[in-house]
């Protein structure tokens, strides 16, 4: 048993997802152990309601267990981490929609003066040079929209629900962000 856990510990996330697709419970446990802490932090940056975060976490990992065979992975340029986040982001939007349907507004996202999130630090390290500088110079509300739409791959409507903004505001901020990025990179 110890050697199986050690072997799983050495595998990358893509391989773990492929084993989960075959029904490997130990691989699923390792994937959860490895990814759930950052997933929870990322979700909490977008939603302060712990009940919604817990619900989204549960729905995300249930979806991973059930649909791991659908992961296309590196063959289409994706990563297991990106695939997991896409599932979680969509589940969060669904949770906000359910809450909006029941006439309760979604709780506000964490205030922008909080220490930078891990993904922001990773983005700063991976997107360097002029593009990284331009991203860091964007106003926080523009960077939020750009992150949701470009990095998280959400639609305008999903971004609007996620950030609690009207769709028109999301479109305007996305346009302003593109203009400012072009200006900074010119």
From TrEMBL:
Keyword Ion transport: no
Residue spans crossing the bilayer: 67-89
Tagged with keyword Transcription: yes
UniProt domain RNA polymerase sigma-70 region: residue ranges: 31-100
Superkingdom as given in the UniProt entry: Bacteria
One of the GO BP terms on file: DNA-templated transcription initiation
GO molecular function: DNA binding; sigma factor activity
Assigned keywords, A-Z: Membrane, Sigma factor, Transcription, Transcription regulation, Transmembrane, Transmembrane helix
Residue ranges of every copy of the RNA polymerase sigma factor 70 region 4 type domain listed in the record: 131-179
UniProt record similarity statement: Belongs to the sigma-70 factor family. ECF subfamily.
PANTHER family for the chain: RNA POLYMERASE ECF-TYPE SIGMA FACTO, RNA POLYMERASE SIGMA-70 FACTOR ECF SUBFAMILY
Official protein name in the record: RNA polymerase sigma24 factor
Naturally occurring in which organism (per UniProt): Streptomyces lacrimifluminis
Lineage, broadest ranks: Bacteria, Bacillati, Actinomycetota, Actinomycetes, Kitasatosporales
